[in-house]
Amino acid sequence: QKEVEQNSGPLSVPEGAIASLNCTYSDRGSQSFFWYRQYSGKSPELIMSIYSNGDKEDGRFTAQLNKASQYVSLLIRDSQPSDSATYLCAVNKDQAGTALIFGKGTTLSVSS
Amino acid sequence: GAVVSQHPSWVICKSGTSVKIECRSLDFQATTMFWYRQFPKQSLMLMATSNEGSKATYEQGVEKDKFLINHASLTLSTLTVTSAHPEDSSFYICSATEEGGSPLHFGNGTRLTVT
After folding, report:
1. Number of helices and strands (H, E) in chain B?
2. Which residues contact A17 (CB under 8 A, 6 or more apart)?
3. A72-91 confidence digits (pLDDT tens)
4. Collapsed DSSP state (helix, strand, coil) of residue B113
5. Distance CA B35, CA B54 (A)
6. What are the residues of chain A with a beta carbon less than 8 Å away from any beta carbon of chain B?
């Protein structure tokens, strides 16, 4: 069964710093990778998707994928207190569909 | 962007009763919808995959007779928790994807409390 592993944290960074969130996955055949942000009591919202090795940048967010190491990360530049949330890493469950397997999430706390 | 509406956002029910949760795709046709459950401090766990016009596919360990899923149209899927018990108290979240599309769009979730 596929597994997605994340450090639960909390990860604490000062405002303006770079937050680095990491995720490993067990299935070498995984093709699609996602980072979601979840505020307490709310449903997840998509931040980034990445499908090929390398970096993908979107504003203050950069996703990095290394399929050889089965590793995906999310960098948040110029962290803001509003970025404080739980960040969930997800990978596709199988190639046939779009169901996702989620990690337990890393809690990020950005202090002002 | 794609919007998924989930109703109700929270519900309290007595043990032994049934609760229905609706999930609607508002601006796209969702051929596939997914139901997840999240316990406190835990991650989202996939319960079942729902395809329009066919029976849902349940994940291992999820009782299909307890969690009834109906995907009657391309914009609506419902989850009915039958004979609810306190251990069913959880955050239930639906998600949907357009045909051939990803990633998933999530509803706002339903907080179920069974007393």
Report:
1. 0, 11
2. A79, A110
3. 999 999 999 999 999 999 99
4. strand
5. 15
6. 32, 34, 41-46, 49, 88, 92-93, 97-105
